[in-house]
Amino acid sequence: MAFDFDTPTNRLKTDSIRWDSFDSKEVLPLWVADMDFKSPPCVIEALSDRVNQGIYGYTHSPHQMNAMIADYLYEQYQWKVDPEWIVILPSVVSGLYTTVQQLTESDESVLIPNPIYHHLRLACTSANRPFQEMPLELKDGRWVLPVNELSNLITNKTVLALFCNPQNPGSTVFTREELKEFGNFCLENNLWICSDEIHAGLVLDSNKKHIPLASISKDISEKTITLMSLNKTFNFPGIGLAWAVAENPVLRKAIQVGLHQTIAPPSLLAYTATMAAIKEGEPWRKELIAYLRSNRDLIYSKINSIDGLSIGNMEGSYLAWINCTKLNHPDPYQLFLDAGLATSPGSQFGQQKFIRLNFGTQKARLTQALNIIESCAKF
């Protein structure tokens, strides 16, 4: 490999949320979704050059930014996007909250998956919007939508569906047919859609490909805000930058409410990092995928050999959604934490008897984590 993912990185004294929340001498922290790998050399070099210029004044989005993103989306996903459909945002999370606030009224409700990344749920509760959960079903090792039950979950007050692809925490990479079925359901019921696709660049299965929901048809595109970012793929979430794609001008106007007012724009370094990743980051991304795939296979082998634990297919991202339902313990998260491993508790995503393990780390650290899990499960 041209890039080194095995050498341990020291994230202490870097103000890391993940590493500073626990005593590193006692606990291995594999929870919050950032990786323990250095960002690509092209990103580091571009940031260094920008810093060395020595002037950090007020900065607008580079004039070529939207066109670069549109070209990238076509190159990666064969999705034809007009640069005018793109709105630059500071983060996907801010986009989720803005979408719920602007596309729903106080007496209207939202449809969200379960399990799901907790900010999709918090975007509803913070806006005081009721929500109805779509309980994902495990079929052939994949967490999929309950398509035959969706019509029973909505009312005449349901106006928005939140979606996540690849799915977090279940890691499903939805197929074209699955996306078409869900998108058409939303069309038939006149639902707006907000699709969180921040993990699009992290598809692990060689026979799978990320397909943006809005790319399925023009009708679906007209109803959809797609939220994307390179923060996860190239590991610079602390710098940040995201974008929304919305063909419908009504949705573009909605997603911009508060921008440059109560919602700050991205920093000048965010533009630099994102553009460098687009221009030169692909070789690094491909090697990252190979490394994560190897880590995933290690998890499969270990977890499937432990009584009381199970895991579905990990098709995308670097997050393992481990089923501890048959483990004889009321709180699996606390069990592993007491043994020296910090994961994300399943309750955060709507499922108490699961944990989410971040395997975007060196293989030696992952092996240490899996050994802790195995030792706990024996008792």
Description:
This protein is of the alpha/beta class. The mean pLDDT is 97. Helix 2 runs antiparallel to helix 9, helix 4 packs parallel to helix 5 and helix 10 packs parallel to helix 12. Strand 14 and strand 15 form a beta hairpin. The chain contains twelve helices and 15 strands. Helix content is 35%, strand content 16%. It folds into two domains: 121 residues, Aspartate Aminotransferase, domain 1 (Alpha-Beta Complex); 215 residues, Type I PLP-dependent aspartate aminotransferase-like (Major domain) (Aspartate Aminotransferase, domain 2, 3-Layer(aba) Sandwich), CATH 3.40.640.10. The longest helix has 22 residues.
The assigned CATH architecture of the largest domain is: 3-Layer(aba) Sandwich
CATH class of the largest domain: Alpha Beta
By CATH's scheme, which homologous superfamily of the largest domain applies?
A: Type I PLP-dependent aspartate aminotransferase-like (Major domain)
The total of helices stands at: 12
The number of domains is 2
How many β-strands, per DSSP?
Answer: 15
State the share of residues found in helices, binned by percent. Answer: 25-40%
CATH topology title of the largest domain: Aspartate Aminotransferase, domain 2
* Main sheet properties: 7 strands, mixed
Q: Distance between the terminal alpha carbons, to the nearest Å?
A: 40 Å
* Beta content: 15-25%
- The chain-level mean pLDDT equals 97
Radius of gyration: 20 Å
State the order of secondary-structure elements, H for helix, E for strand. HEHHEHEHEEEEHEHEEHHHEEHEEEH
Quickly give the structural class: alpha/beta
Strand order of the largest sheet: 2-10-9-8-7-3-4
